[in-house]
Amino acid sequence: MDVLTENFSLYGKGFLGTVELTVYSSILALVLGFLMASCRVAPVGSLRVLGTVWVTVLRNTPLTLLFFAVLLGLPRFGLVLPFEVFAVLALGCYTSAFICEVLRSGINTVPTGQGEAARSLGMTFGQTLNTVVLPQAFRSVIPPVGSTLIALAKNSAIAGAFSVTELLGTYKTLNELGYSIIWTFVWIAVGYLIITLSISALFNVLEKRWGVAR
Questions:
Q1: What SS3 class is residue 180?
Q2: Contact 103, 37 (CB under 8 A)
Q3: Angle at 68 between CA 65 and CA 74, to 5 degrees
């Protein structure tokens, strides 16, 4: 317990850093994922191409490489922001590709007849998507969206290699101070477990309230 009790503030700072990265990146991923999913099912060909390119490129790019591209590449084009913001951009954009595919799968579970009926009533594509299709699709995608955000929380550990304060990065300081590396990682694992179980509990509540009965 000494490694935790004697360095509680350090662990706390890393834990809060990971929580902030997870929350902000999740919001960005959900917004971008929704927009890209809308593009992928849009009747406009150029929007479908945009959504397809976004998903294809990001899903097939290693996250570490994306971090290098964002944190080291964007400043070369004059965009200078705190590393924490760059980390959120990298995590959020990367995860949005997976959120997009989850949402698109949910949209495809909605019978096409419902969309056709909405259009026959004079509703636009946006109105059909927002008032008819997405509310039904949302119910079926709650569990996979939760799993994707849990993966995002664990992926945030990569940010520590780019001078971003997060939970895994605390091991460097503790290792230099001579603490047992095993117990250092045990308490880091406990921290990640708290975060992932919290996300899981939240989505379990959402699923019980709005999920599709199976």
A1: coil
A2: yes
A3: 130
Residue 157: which H helix or E strand, with range?
none
CA gap 196, 179 in Å, rounded: 26
Task: Name the nearest CA neighbour of 170 among 7, 1, 5.
Answer: 7
| Token couple for 110 | 């909605």
Q: What is the dihedral of CA 125, 127, 132, 133, to 10 degrees?
A: 40
Question: What is the spatial distance between Cα 145 and Cα 165, in angstroms, rounded to a whole number?
Answer: 26
**Mind listing the pLDDT tens digit for each residue in 113-171?**
777 777 777 777 777 777 777 777 788 888 899 999 999 999 999 988 887 888 887 87
* DSSP states along 76-114: GGT----HHHHHHHHHHHHHHHHHHHHHHHHHHTS-HHH
Task: Give the whole-number percent of the chain exceeding pLDDT 70.
Answer: 91
The answer to whether 99 and 145 are in contact (CB under 8 A) is yes
What span, in angstroms and rounded, lies between the C-alpha atoms of 46 and 146? 30
What is the pTM assigned to this prediction? 0.86
Return the residue matching tokens 């191409």: 49
For residue range 94-113, list pLDDT tens digits in order: 999 999 999 988 888 777 77
Q: What are the Cα distances from residue 140, in Å, to 129, 130, 135, 143, 209?
A: 15, 15, 10, 8, 12
User: How far, in Å, CA of 29 to CA of 107, rounded?
Assistant: 18
By the 8 A CB rule, do 59 and 98 touch? yes
Confidence of residue 92 (pLDDT cuts 50, 70, 90): very high
